[in-house]
Fold this sequence. Notes:
2 copies of one chain form a homodimer.
Chain A: H1 7-23, H2 30-37, H3 41-44, H4 51-74, H5 80-94, H6 96-103, H7 116-127, H8 132-150, H9 160-171
Chain A binds a DNA duplex through residues 6, 8, 29-31, 39-43, 45-47, 50-51.
Amino acid sequence: MPDELSPRGRELVAAARVLLEAEGPEGLSMRRLAERVGVTAPSVYKHLPDKAALEHAVISDAFAEMAVAFAAAVDGAGDRLGALATAYRRFASAHPHLYRLMTTRPLDRGRLRAGVEAAAAAPLVAAVGGDADAARAAWAFAHGMAILEIDGRFPPDADLDAAWARGIAAFRPGAA
Amino acid sequence: MPDELSPRGRELVAAARVLLEAEGPEGLSMRRLAERVGVTAPSVYKHLPDKAALEHAVISDAFAEMAVAFAAAVDGAGDRLGALATAYRRFASAHPHLYRLMTTRPLDRGRLRAGVEAAAAAPLVAAVGGDADAARAAWAFAHGMAILEIDGRFPPDADLDAAWARGIAAFRPGAA
DNA sequence: TACGGTTGGTGAACAGCGTTCACCAACCGG
DNA sequence: CCGGTTGGTGAACGCTGTTCACCAACCGTA
């Protein structure tokens, strides 16, 4: 609960983010992180209770970043859903390791900074016209596309722009 | 390439599947697997080159299983897409650890048993009317729903039946 | 029948992981 | 000056995947 981090703690979270994005999850070990910051591994535990807390801090930052990116994307856009999908896809492609950390495997919401997930989700709910079921379906579609794309699950010759377009059309308010 | 496994090899793959489903990915270690089969860990390497090969063998089996489940689901169904979605969702819910192993993180197709992935995908392409873009979008939607559901990412009060229905309607042939 | 190669097992070891422990130096307020 | 907190340390524990040298049993052939 003492969501406040020491300056060293913030430094560690920032370094973890860099390490993760540069080398992937394998590269993000407590020893390597500590080394980056010029300290030994046990010292990390003076600032963060465990590795999960470190990851949740990185994830919280990322959700906050997502929220501002999404808000900017819909701002003044005619096709809000399309703009949002583009921003979503771009975020995942630009930060694949980070996106996987955020979305892969169960997430302990209690360890996330409060409100940060809802802030990222809000523009989508608005863009589909307030229909919660449609928002969840659209989110599932976007997440599925994004994760399958960055994981290289689609055939190399697949026209992903077309698949995205097909899904976006399906969830535009009033459709289906 | 010698896709043929020794009897012991098959025994190991079967035990790995049981271990994975019972205890999750943490429980699936080479030592614990070996112990289950009454052998020591280095012995496993006489039958399988490494842990990734073991996992790919489990995944190949699972895809083959999926393929027969999906074929059975669409067989004689009026709403093929709906039937397929139900079967997909049921598979993921019934085998969450297995489903995560199959779909989470990049997959080295070269290590999969040939054709097994395409066999699982075929019924969907048919159900959606042969449109590859729509099939990919529908797959992304189904995967997104399934993985978010088994990972507990939706709010506990979310009406997931409704979200599934909304997405299925969106991808029915002719829609959008 | 004796021999040689393959098959499949073993214990020991290595490097790396997250984490805990006892310890200690420096700082800071009373 | 003194006591407590803060933040660092090296050593260690148990776990991981994996490699190594070794060895016993089997099996086909000379």
